[in-house]
Design goal:
The complex is a heterodimer of chains A (about 190) and B (about 170).
Chain A lengths: L4 E11 L11 E7 L7 H17 L8 E11 L4 H16 L7 E8 L5 E3 L3 H6 L2 E8 L5 E8 L3 H29 L3
Chain B lengths: L8 E10 L2 E5 L6 E4 L19 E8 L7 E3 L11 E3 L4 E4 L2 H7 L5 H9 L2 E5 L4 E6 L2 H13 L5 H13 L1
Parallel strand pairs in B: 3-5
Antiparallel strand pairs in B: 1-2, 1-4, 2-3, 4-5, 4-6, 7-9, 8-9
The chains are: A alpha+beta (about 190), B alpha+beta (about 170).
Chain lengths: ~190, ~170
C-alpha cells in the first residue's frame, strides 16, 4: 500500500477548439501518460473509462463550448493503477473547484483462485488473481458509476466484490474530506 | 476560476485588437469583447488610445454561459465612473475570489488600516485581480504582500504586521 502514485493536473474550463467544442456542454479530454514509454492502446482505453466516469459527475451544462483537460502522469505502479487514477482525477476535480454532481472513488478487487476477495491488490496479487474488478463508486448512496473486469467470475462473486468495494469507499471519501480540510485551514 | 457575471466590475488585459473590438483576458473560459465606442466621450472620430497589454477596468453587460462575454467602460448614464484604461506603473496581482469579496464588503477594515499606513491607489476586480500603485515601488510591494497575506492572517496578526511596518 502506498507505492502506486499518479499525478493529476486539471485545466479548464478553457476555450475549446472549434472542431472540439460541444454547443451545450463542456468537452472533457483525459490524457494518461505511463511512467515509461509512449501511451499505447491500454492507456487509451483507460482514458476513455476515466472520461466517461468524469462526464457522469461533472455538470458540463454550466460551461458550454469550453474544454476541460485532465492530464494524469503515472509516477509509480505497484498495483491497482486504475483506481489510483480515478481517485487522483476526483481530487483534481475537487481542488479545481469544478461543479460536480457527486464525488467518486476507485476501488480495485482481486478475486483469488480460492474465492477470497482482496481489496487494492499489489501487482503480485493481481497476477495471481483469477479476476480483477475495478469499480468507480459515487458518493451519493454509493452507486456504481463504472465497473471493469479482467478475468472471469460468477455473478454472485461480482456482487460480493461490489459490496466490499462500497464499504471501502466510505474510508476513501473520509480521506478526501480530511485532505481538503487540511488544505484549506492554516 | 472566475465565471463572468453581468454587472461585475473586473480588470481585463487587452490581448488583441480585432477591427473595432478589443479582446480582453478576464480570467474566464473565453476572452471578453470590448467595443471602442464603449468609453466615455468616444466617437468614431475620437478613438480611445488602447494598446495590446493595457489594463482596463470595466463591467459586463452580457455574461451568460452560452455567449461570449461583453464589457463596457461606461455605466447606464454614459459616464465612466472610474472605469476605463488603468494608468501606467502600479502592480497587478491575483488573489482568490473569496478575498476579493471580503475586501469589497461594506466595512472592510483591511483597506482602512492599510490606507493609514501609506497613501495608494487601488483597483479591485471581481475576477480575482487587484491593481495597486503607491508612491514608491517599495511601498507598492509592501501593500501587495499585505493584501496577499490577508487571506490567511487573523485580524490581530494583521494589526501586528501593520504596527511593525508603521514603526519602521
Amino acid at each position: 500500500p502506498g507505492d502506486t502514485s499518479v499525478l493529476a493536473g486539471l485545466y479548464g474550463p478553457a476555450e475549446a477548439k472549434i472542431s472540439k467544442e460541444l454547443p451545450d456542454r463542456a468537452a472533457l479530454e483525459v490524457l494518461l501518460r505511463p511512467k515509461v514509454g509512449l501511451p499505447g492502446v491500454l492507456e487509451r482505453s483507460r482514458e476513455q473509462l476515466l472520461r466517461q466516469t468524469c462526464e457522469a459527475v461533472i455538470l458540463g451544462v454550466l460551461h458550454p463550448r469550453t474544454a476541460i483537460s485532465l492530464v494524469l502522469q503515472v509516477l509509480s505502479d505497484a498495483g491497482s493503477l486504475l483506481s489510483c487514477c480515478l481517485n487522483a482525477a476526483c481530487m483534481a476535480l475537487l481542488d479545481a473547484g469544478l461543479p460536480l454532481a457527486a464525488l467518486f472513488c476507485g476501488v480495485t478487487c482481486a478475486l483469488q483462485p480460492d474465492g477470497t476477495i482482496l481489496l487494492d491488490p499489489t501487482a503480485r496479487q493481481e497476477q495471481e488473481a483469477r479476476a480483477i474488478l475495478t469499480f468507480a463508486i459515487a458518493s451519493t448512496e454509493r452507486k456504481v458509476l463504472m465497473s471493469t473486469t479482467k478475468g472471469s467470475c460468477s455473478v454472485e462473486e461480482m456482487q460480493q466484490c461490489l459490496a466490499a468495494a462500497q464499504r471501502a469507499a466510505t474510508t476513501i471519501f473520509q480521506f478526501y474530506r480530511d485532505s481538503v480540510r487540511r488544505r484549506y485551514s492554516k | 476560476q472566475y465565471v463572468p457575471v453581468k454587472g461585475d466590475h473586473v480588470i481585463g488585459i487587452v490581448t488583441a485588437k480585432a477591427g473595432d473590438v478589443f479582446r480582453l483576458d478576464v480570467g474566464g473560459s473565453e476572452p471578453a469583447s470590448l467595443s471602442y465606442l464603449a468609453f466615455e466621450g468616444a466617437t468614431k472620430r475620437n478613438r480611445p488610445n488602447v494598446q495590446v497589454g493595457d489594463l482596463i477596468y470595466g463591467q459586463f453587460v452580457v455574461a451568460n454561459k452560452d455567449m461570449e462575454p461583453e464589457m463596457v467602460c461606461i455605466d447606464s448614464s454614459g459616464k465612466s465612473s472610474g472605469m476605463g484604461i488603468i494608468g501606467q506603473d502600479g502592480f497587478l496581482f491575483k488573489v482568490t475570489l473569496g478575498l476579493i469579496r471580503k475586501l469589497l464588503a461594506p466595512k472592510c477594515e483591511i483597506i482602512q488600516e492599510l490606507s493609514q499606513l501609506y497613501p495608494f491607489e487601488l483597483v479591485i476586480g471581481m475576477n480575482g485581480r487587484i491593481w495597486v500603485k503607491a508612491k514608491t515601488v517599495q511601498q507598492t510591494l509592501i501593500v501587495v504582500n499585505i493584501l496577499e497575506a490577508c487571506e490567511y492572517m487573523t485580524a490581530e496578526q494583521r494589526k501586528q504586521a501593520l504596527a511593525k511596518l508603521s514603526g519602521n
